[in-house]
Here is the input.
Amino acid sequence: MSTDTDDDWVNLNRAITDRTLDTASLCQLRCYFKAAHAQGVSVSPALLDNIQRLISRRESARQARWTLIGAWAAIIGAGAAIVAAIASVYGLWK
Here is the structure.
C-alpha cells in the first residue's frame, strides 16, 4: 500500500471515530473508498457499501444541482427570446 492510501486509511478511521464520514466531500469519500478497498479482507463489506452509498448520494445531488442550473438557463434564454421577438414585432429595437 502506498503512503497516500495509508494516510487515507488513517483519515477514514478518524472520520468514523469523529462521526464526520457523512459530511465528507466527494473527493474525500473516493479516497476513503480506495483506502478501504486496498485493505482487503480486513474491511467490513458494510463499510464499503456505506462509503459507496455516500458517494452515490453526493453524485446525485451534484447532478440534480446542474440540472436545475441548466433548467434556469433555458428559462432565462426562452424569456430573452420572447422579449426579443416581441421587440422585433413592435419595432422597439432598430
About this structure: Residues 45-90 form the longest helix (46 residues). The CA atoms of residues 32 and 49 lie 12 Å apart.
